């Protein structure tokens, strides 16, 4: 017996309407994250929504672009819609809200013709048994968004107040000051450049790929070509890694034949750096699926590592390492330029939970560091509890460790990337992020700690 169409078992949509399935996947993924499954990452929500739709690669990319644009400017989009909805935003109907948000994102931020965005949103509303009576409302609001585009854009003046969840805006203003917090929020609107880490011959690769060599050591590419089609990718001459993400291993400075543990290694950007330096790296991660990606990456780069699927907390402490990297699981608020959903799906409670795990991993990392060895702790978070405060508490617990202050010449002369304690503190607004000139960095914290003795 045929089952009744519902959202898990969507009715077939007209295959002759180009882009309709891509819109449905985008709207369903956004609805999932706006609804009760807030903790999910957008990538996972897209994969879930795409099951059963068999999207062509171009449509899958379009679905991702629409969903990403929706979260990048969710605060602005919500404000524009709320002003035009007599009864306010339909918070208790995530699917309706998602159809409005994804429709408005296409009209305001993507190169989609207004009539296509409106027509497809209306078709999807009509196809939803629970929403079909609201198709005229969706039609009217989205048309109005198109007509009032200029006024809407002119009103988008304060990304910190309007386009940042209140709890994050408050934290960043407290940690970095109001002006810097506003710069961070502005940088989030821009997205991120494509940075790559080169194995060697930086000038030659800069010329061949047409990129700009940053004084941090990475190559920043300006083109929008598919990564796998670029020269040198298949031969393993370089790998994709934000310029800030490459700094913790540069600061560790692994040496040939040293034994190095990378405790939270997948998908392996930092493992690759350590292996490329000639060190003998043990790459540990508890996620077998993510380690498969690490293995594929290392194979392409022709690099080797001893790969261990395990909870780092359970590792044997018998033979400590010359150097240990702990790139700890964190709230990832430093990566909002790439993953704008993070701002809207994480909560303050997540931070408290992660801080506890980071502390236990740090204590383990300390026991895995040989006397005289170094421990580099890093997170891609903007939150002080996951960086500055975590290290202060660690140093108070472990008197055999001391901080090795980072100097400006270790980070291309950029003294602004070092905090008052001598730790690395990069922000999305650094390197001209938010200025419209293709700058910016992921928000990374890193501290280099040395164990006494040896
Ligand atoms: C920030 S990501 C690591 C990124 C990686 N270092 C890189 O540069 O590509 C954090 C990783 O920690 C892993 N992880 C979380 N808790 C862990 C644990 N207790 N033991 C080992 N790995 C863990 C996650 O599976 C995730 O892959």
Tell me what you see in this structure.
- The model is unreliable at 1-5 (pLDDT under 50).
- The chain contains 18 helices and twelve strands.
- The strands form two sheets. Strands 5, 6, 7, 8, 9, 10, 11 and 12 form an eight-stranded mixed beta sheet that branches. Strands 2-3-1-4 form a four-stranded antiparallel beta sheet, with helices on one face.
- Helix 14 (269-276) links the parallel strand 5 and strand 6 (280-285).
- It has helices spanning 20-34, 42-50, 57-72, 74-84, 94-109, 114-127, 135-147, 149-154, 159-162, 166-176, 178-190, 202-209, 247-252, 269-276, 288-301, 341-345, 348-367, 388-397; strands spanning 194-198, 212-213, 219-221, 238-240, 259-262, 280-285, 306-309, 321-327, 369-379, 401-403, 424-425, 445-451.
- The longest helix has 20 residues, at 348-367.
- It has 454 residues and is of the alpha/beta class.
- The site of S-adenosylmethionine has 17 residues, from helix 14 and strand 6.
């Amino acid at each position: 017996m045929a089952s009744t169409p519902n959202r898990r078992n969507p009715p077939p949509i007209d295959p002759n309407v180009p882009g309709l399935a891509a819109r449905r996947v985008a709207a369903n993924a956004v609805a999932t994250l706006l609804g009760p499954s807030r903790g999910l990452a957008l990538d996972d929500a897209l994969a879930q929504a795409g099951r059963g739709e068999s999207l062509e690669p171009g449509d899958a990319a379009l679905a991702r672009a629409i969903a990403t644009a929706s979260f990048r400017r969710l605060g602005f989009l919500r404000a524009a819609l709320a002003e035009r909805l007599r009864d306010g935003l339909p918070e208790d109907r995530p699917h309706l809200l998602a159809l409005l948000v994804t429709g408005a994102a296409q009209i305001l931020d993507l190169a989609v013709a207004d009539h296509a965005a409106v027509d497809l949103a209306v078709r999807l509303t009509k196809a939803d048994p629970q929403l079909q009576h609201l198709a005229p409302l969706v039609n009217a609001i989205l048309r109005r968004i198109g007509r009032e585009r200029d006024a809407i854009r002119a009103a988008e003046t304060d990304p910190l107040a309007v386009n940042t969840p209140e709890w994050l805006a408050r934290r960043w203003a407290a940690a970095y000051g109001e002006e810097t917090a506003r710069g961070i929020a502005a940088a989030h609107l821009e997205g991120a450049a494509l940075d790559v880490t080169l194995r060697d011959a930086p000038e030659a690769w800069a010329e061949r790929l047409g990129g700009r060599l940053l004084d941090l050591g990475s190559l920043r590419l300006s083109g929008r070509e598919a990564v796998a089609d670029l020269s040198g990718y298949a031969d393993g001459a370089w790998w994709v890694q934000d310029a800030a993400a490459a700094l913790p291993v540069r600061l560790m400075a692994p040496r040939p034949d040293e034994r190095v543990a990378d405790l939270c290694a997948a998908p392996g950007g930092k493992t690759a750096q350590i292996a490329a330096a000639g060190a003998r790296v043990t790459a540990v991660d508890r996620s077998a699926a993510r380690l498969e990606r690490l293995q594929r990456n290392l194979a392409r780069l022709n690099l080797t590592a001893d790969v261990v699927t395990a909870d780092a907390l359970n590792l044997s402490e018998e033979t400590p390492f010359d150097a240990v990297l702990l790139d700890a699981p964190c709230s990832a608020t430093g990566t909002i330029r790439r993953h704008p959903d993070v701002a809207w799906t994480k909560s303050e409670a997540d931070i408290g939970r992660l801080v506890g795990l980071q502390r236990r991993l740090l204590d383990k990392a300390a026991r895995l560091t040989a006397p005289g060895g170094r421990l580099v702790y890093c997170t891609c978070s903007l939150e002080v509890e996951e960086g500055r405060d975590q290290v202060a508490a660690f140093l108070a617990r472990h008197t055999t460790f001391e901080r090795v202050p980072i100097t400006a010449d270790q980070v291309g002369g950029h003294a602004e990337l070092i905090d008052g304690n001598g730790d690395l503190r990069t922000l999305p607004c650094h390197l001209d992020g938010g200025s419209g000139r293709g700058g910016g960095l992921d928000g990374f914290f890193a501290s280099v700690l040395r164990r006494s003795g040896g």
